[in-house]
Design brief:
This protein has 3 domains: about 90 residues, Conserved hypothetical protein from pyrococcus furiosus pfu- 392566-001, ParB domain (Alpha-Beta Complex); about 40 residues, no CATH class; about 35 residues, no CATH class. Helix 1 crosses helix 2. The radius of gyration is 27 Å and the shape is extended. The chain is α+β, with helices and mostly antiparallel strands. It is about 30% helix and about 15% strand. It has a 4-stranded mixed β-sheet. It is built from 5 helices and 6 strands; from the N terminus they run βαββαβααββα.
Length: about 210
């Protein structure tokens, strides 16, 4: 007589592959002349804004490192800070290496960083408390100072935050059109017809 034994056992758990620890970016100090700003960077900064950031750097120091390719000096992020640092008289800046980023990643990252900074909003009550605390501690609050805000009297007699106004903010962008001249002319016509859009420069490059 034959006996048939059926047995079961739990399957061994698959071992998860360990992720390699993320490589920490290199960081060094480089002379301000070493940095090469990208002429295609679409973000523009008024002289007033640069001057105000320079005051903040002189007051608090240069606290946010630049991001650039060590192999070339090309700036990935920090064009605004670089201008202000030069105006503030700094001779060298901390910089993180971006040699691991592709050209496409750099272009997308640059737009993302600038766009994300615009998405935040103020909690007016908390902002007022912060300004009042700084004012009580003797910190000079001026519209054109390092903090960039002051306290103003409101219509009801209450103090209100008064941010420094540098004038209307306009986004400057570059549109590249590949094709025949009639196509480029049509793009310019449509852009010119959009409310608030001003064509500052239009050039034709032949390949």
């Amino acid at each position: 007589m034959r006996h048939r034994v059926v047995a079961s056992a739990p399957m061994p758990k698959a071992k998860r592959a360990k992720k390699a620890p993320a490589k920490r970016p290199e960081m060094e100090y480089r002379p301000v002349e070493w940095f090469k700003p990208d002429a295609k960077n679409p973000r523009k900064h008024s002289p007033e804004a640069v001057a105000q950031l320079a005051k903040a750097i002189q007051t608090f120091g240069f606290r946010i490192p630049m991001l650039a390719k060590f192999s070339s000096g090309d700036v990935v992020d920090g064009h605004f800070r670089l201008k202000a640092a030069k105006l503030a008289g700094l001779v060298e800046l901390p910089v993180m290496n971006a040699d691991d980023m592709t050209e496409l990643e750099i272009r997308a990252f640059r737009l993302s960083v600038n766009r994300m900074a615009e998405l935040a909003d103020w909690d007016e009550d908390l902002l007022l408390k912060e300004l009042e605390a700084l004012d009580a501690a003797g910190v000079v609050l001026e519209e054109e100072g390092a903090v960039g805000m002051a306290l103003a009297d409101g219509a009801d007699g209450k103090l209100l935050p008064q941010p420094y106004e540098t004038g209307p903010v306009h986004d400057t962008f570059v549109v590249t059109v590949t094709g025949t001249l009639p196509i480029a002319a049509e793009v310019r016509r449509r852009l010119a017809g959009m409310e608030g859009v001003t064509i500052e420069q239009s050039t034709v490059e032949r390949e």
